[in-house]
Amino acid sequence: MVAAVYASALAAALFATGSASAPGVSLETVGEFAPPAASATSKAVTYDQNLVPKGAWIRVRQHTQRNGATTVQLRVTGVKPGHVFGVHVHQKACGADPAAAGSHYQDKAGMDAGHVNATNEVWLDFTSDSHGSGMATAQHSWAFRKGEAGSVVIHSEPGTKGSRAACFTVPFGAKS
Ligand SMILES: [Cu+2]
């Protein structure tokens, strides 16, 4: 009974975000993490299997309205339980080298505290539950510039201090 109620709620949510008549950009990307050597054909690379084991899953959704307002949703399963992760949208696609994803995507470019924050960047920090699942949502009034947002990087710590534990290539869409 509980499962049936949950399923109907999920179907309603999918219908609301997946409507063909909705203006703007709607994107959903799903991946299964693998270490770099095994991920030549995967979009999801783990660099730290203690935090993001092989076989963990990630789903990223983007919805950008015609006025530019953008929502990014993150869902992960199979990561280390009870851990606080830092997550940001980065500029480039993932690679075998954790540095391949480049810097954070920013609405207005700058390296000071006035630019490196969750308002000017897309932060999706989350704490995994006892089963290793987690989710986060970020909402902004601005849209991505075309081709300048290419991945979601999962870090070992929240905020900006953690090392890169995993990366998921997501070709974020620009406002049409
Ligand atoms: Cu980051």
Automatic annotation (TrEMBL):
One of its GO terms (molecular function) is metal ion binding. The keyword Signal applies. Keywords: Signal. It comes from the Bacteria. GO terms for biological process: superoxide metabolic process. InterPro entries: SOD-like_Cu/Zn_dom_sf. Residues 1-22 form the signal peptide. Belongs to the Cu-Zn superoxide dismutase family. This is Uncharacterized protein.
